[in-house]
Amino acid sequence: MKEQNLTKISKFLSLVLRHSPETIGIKIDYQGGWTDTEMLIQKINQHGKYHIDMQILEEIVRTDEKQRYSFNPDKTKIRANQGHSIPIDLELKEQIPPEILWHGTATRFLQEISEKGLKPMSRHHVHLSKDEETALKVGKRHGKPYILKIKSGEMYRKGIKFYLSENGVWLTEYVAPEFLIWPD
Ligand code: HQG
What we know:
- This protein is an alpha+beta fold.
- The protein is built from six helices and nine strands.
- It has helices spanning about 5-20, 35-45, 55-65, 110-115, 130-140, 150-155, and strands at about 35, 70, 75-80, 100-105, 125-130, 145-150, 165, 170, 180.
- A hairpin with a 5-residue loop joins strand 7 and strand 8 (about 170).
- About 25% of the residues are buried.
- Bound molecules: ligand HQG.
- Ligand HQG binds near residues 106, 109, 113, 116 and 138.
- The site of ligand HQG has 18 residues, from strand 4 and helix 4.
């Protein structure tokens, strides 16, 4: 299938698996955020916007640029690896973060962030990147990008929990202003 079409379907998958499963009438398990693969394919096809089969779904899971989705071992279930707004428990294990992590945002949010810190907004966690380049891409999604460094090592030593999603995104509940490093 053409890459462009796969991207469109992948975006639609993000919508149903992270934010709005009711769009196609499926349910996401609270525990783990999984949904039944066959049911997902059937309901997407019934909804009518896209026509997919197992082969296409496998191709998306394999090739998605950010590795947003995973199957369980026998592929009977599928989930988004992070980024949800619906209530689910991804059952992530706590991890020790690197000393510094990065967060890409937009200049228009800076005033608010400097006063209140980084909040999860509509998602479950604040999303942090392991490198500056990734943070820049994330920031550009919102407008004029701006990159902050996060004192993740210090946060961890103060007892703040960090998680790592299956696709390499660092997650934490909140970053207080004192842990933000502003560029010179
Ligand atoms: C900002 C993408 C005002 C925050 C990416 C961000 C990521 C505040 C925006 C993932 C704030 C929320 C997540 C505060 C934070 N006041 N604005 N106190 N605290 N913000 O999209 O991190 O393509 O929910 O800086 O790769 O941009 O979806 O979060 O700009 O991993 O797979 O509020 O989404 O992955 O925006 O991106 P988002 P994000 P996917």
